[in-house]
Structures are given as C-alpha cells and as structure tokens.
Amino acid sequence: MDNLSIFLCFVIGLTSYALIFFKKRYAYWKDRGAPYLEPTIPFGNLPMRRVHFRDIMEPIYEQKKPGAPFMGAYFFGTPVVVATDLNFIQNVLVKDFSNFHERGMYVNEEDDPLSGHMFSLDGEKWKSLRAKLSPTFTSGRMKFMFPTVVDVAGKFNSELSEILKTESELEVRDLLARFTTDVIGTCAFGVECNSLKNPNSEFRNYGVKILEEPLQGSLMQLFLMQYPKLGKKLHIRVVQKEVEDFFMGLVRGTIDYREKNNVRRNDFMDLLIQLKNGENLDGQSQKLGKVTFGEIVAQAFLFFIGGFETSSTTMLFALYELALNPDIQEKARQEIETVLTRYEGKLTYEAVKEIVYVDQIISETLRKYPPVVNLIRQAVRDYRVPGTKIIIEKGTQIFIPNFNIQRDPEIFPNPDVFDPDRFTPEQIKSRHPMSFLGFGEGPRNCVGLRFGRMQTRIGLITLLKNYRFRPCPKTPIPMVFDIIRPTLSPKFGMYLKIEKL
Length: 501
Description:
The chain is α+β, with helices and mostly antiparallel strands. The protein has helices at about 5-25, 30, 55-60, 85-95, 125-135, 140-165, 170-190, 200-210, 220-225, 230-235, 240-260, 270-275, 295-325, 325-340, 350-355, 355-370, 400-405, 425-430, 450-465; strands spanning about 70-75, 80-85, 170, 375-380, 385, 390, 395-400, 465-470, 495-500. The chain has one domain (about 30-500): CATH 1.10.630.10. The longest helix has about 30 residues, at about 295-325. One of its GO terms (molecular function) is heme binding.
C-alpha cells in the first residue's frame, strides 16, 4: 500500500471516529428525555462566527418548552443546561445551592495569577475568600466610603462643566468610565488616578486594555471552561502579562508604603492588608485567616474591573434611556431637587436613600441592559431535577440567561419599553423573585452590589441635578451591542447632547 493510500485510510478512519463520537455524544439529552436544541458537528449549539455571549443563548432560550425546567444544549461536544424555568433557577441559585456552588470557570493561577479571583474560584478556596471579603462590603463600610465617592463626583461635575463650555455633544462612555475608574482607584487602592483630567492615565489605559483588548473571545472562553486541563497544559492565559505586571507592582508598592509608614485609610486595600497580616477586621470578633499576596492582587484586580466597568455601563445605559424618555428624566430630577432641599442641598448618605426613583431607574436599566448577560453554575454532585426523572450529572454546567429572561414578554410585558415603575415595591412583590438577576442571587450573588449601587446612584444624582440629556444625531438608535467586550456595551460609543442647568 502506497503512502497516499495509507494517508487516505487514516483520514477516513479519523473522520469516521469523529462522526461516531459526535453522534453518540449528541444523543446525550435525547437519551435522558430532556428537551434539547438539535446540535451541529463540531460546534454543537455554538455559532461558527464570533458573537457576544448574549447571542449564544438567545436561539436556545427562544426554543424553551412550557413546563420544562431547562433546554439541553451542546457547547462543542459537551452537554450543558440552559435554564428556562424560574422555579428551577431558584433551586439552582438558592434552595439547592449546595449542589451548585461552583461556576466551573477557567482558572490558571500558576501561569495567570490574576485569574485566581473570587468570581472564578470554586470549592473551599472560594468559600474562604467569600467569608473573608464579605465584611468589607457592609452598609457601615459603604457609609464610610460615601464621602470619598461624593468628592470624586464633585470633581466629575467640575470637569464636565468645563468641557461643555466648548462642546455640547459628547461621547459619554469614556467619560463615565473615567469617573468610576477614579472612584475605584481611590476606594480600592488609595491612589489619585486623575483620569477625569488625564484620559491617558495608567489606570484608565489598563482598564481599556482589559476590556477592549481581551486575550480570549467568547467562544475561546467557553472552550477553556469545557476543557480546563487542556488549557492549563497549553499554559493559556486570560489576563495580559503587562496587566498582571501593572497590578502586581501597584499592590506591592501600596502595601510596602502603608506598612512602612503606618498609613491607614480604611479603604478596600486596608482591609486586604489586615487579612494578609491575620488581623481581625474592624468590628469583627473572630479572625478569618490570612490571605496571600497573590490572593490580594487577584481580588484587587477583580474589584477594579468589576467596579469601574459595570457601574459606568449601567450609568451609560441609564442616561441613554433618560435621553430618549425626557418625562422619566424630569420626574427623577424633580425628586432629586425635592429631597436635597430637605438636606440643605447636600448629597448625604441619608438623602441618597430617600431618592428612590433613581434607584428604580438603575434597576430598570439593569433589567434591560444587564452588564453580565449569563450566570453560570456547575453541579458538584448528581442532581435529580424536582418533578422529573432527569438527572443533571456532576460536572454539568448550568447557564442562566438573565438577559433573555429579563427581556421575556411573558415575565416583563413590553420588555423593550423603559419603565422604572416596574420596580416599585408592589411590582417587585408581584413577580417571581428570580425574574430579575441584575446582581445575581443566592450565596454567590455580587459581593460588591452595595458599592456598585452606591457609586451609580451618586453619579446619576450628580449628573441629573446639574445637566439635561438629549439624543443627538450620533446617538445610536436602535442600540447595537459590541461583540468584543465581555460585558454588554454599545458598539459605536454613546453620544448625547448635554445641557448644563
């Protein structure tokens, strides 16, 4: 047999094996009697082109079956669960959390130390870090950080006022990201970033690099989640090396300076230093155990990317909707003026709590534009779905498509209409508790949700008190989303006409 014949036999044999493998693999959900979406070799139910996470789930969610807890799907050759029923979602996130406390994210601390943060970690390591870091986000600590955020908002107001002297139609995405970057830089690292005055500050540049130049796209990240051992053998990173070097140097320098000079700022970094040294956190009666330097850097990195991007994006979409809905904008402005009059015009912690309509605007923005479009959990043991004979096997990943849920007309009538009154106390009580997942739910919800809401409230109140927002010719109508960024973001920026009041 000549070489060509041998090669052809090899190719035919390999192709036949692959077809048999996928045919058997793609019978997984059918064999278990679960509803599923028909897959295509070799991507399963993944698209063959680069898309956003939101676009991966939409066609699966749209095929949901009435009364079924989930849709079975395939990511490459791996069976996954796409949750479609709110009661099942409540079981996964809350009631049966002990069965689903892992996310199954790709973590490679050896090659990529910043990947070892609390959002991605699982098991005892996640549980330990969550217990240690939760006390840093209590309402008492938020009250302490409140004046710092207000101070940055004041600088933001001054800078915007200067810009408006020469132009009135502005790209606000970068402007808002510079505001939240300065907030996070001050509250997390005790560093005056000055990105409001200097758009090319180091902090801002690295924020842009993380989000606009990701090492891995959506499909590659899903591949790494399905095959983490292969990713580690190939030494694949998810965070750029220069980003790692920047944060390592920043945190090391901050810790060294503070410890040598006995500096205390009562910010996020102070709390991490206390944990590093095995000290009791202020107000805590028992020690929580030490954290390593590497763990400190990873958590500081998470706080940075989670704090500046999600809040700035929420403010961005809120201003977009307020520009398109001037009646809602004016109602919010009137409430702000009424409440602040009672506090002599000062934006206090107590005043912000009374400005409830702005909080409803934030919730409605998060409903329509959730920064994180899917929640992910992983079964840690075999789990029988209540009311069925279906077993979700250990290691199976569960995707909760909150973007699609929160735009489902059966849950939120007229979902494309922006209506903050969906979030009055009466309306919230009338809906299933899993219908809104803007901050996640259960023990693995967003640990920094208090801080995120606080800086978003302060930012929006400051802006609405001093400016009016309108659409301009460059305003993206309808909205087109960027497929490159991991969080939900407008593709062509966000231009608005701004008028100083």
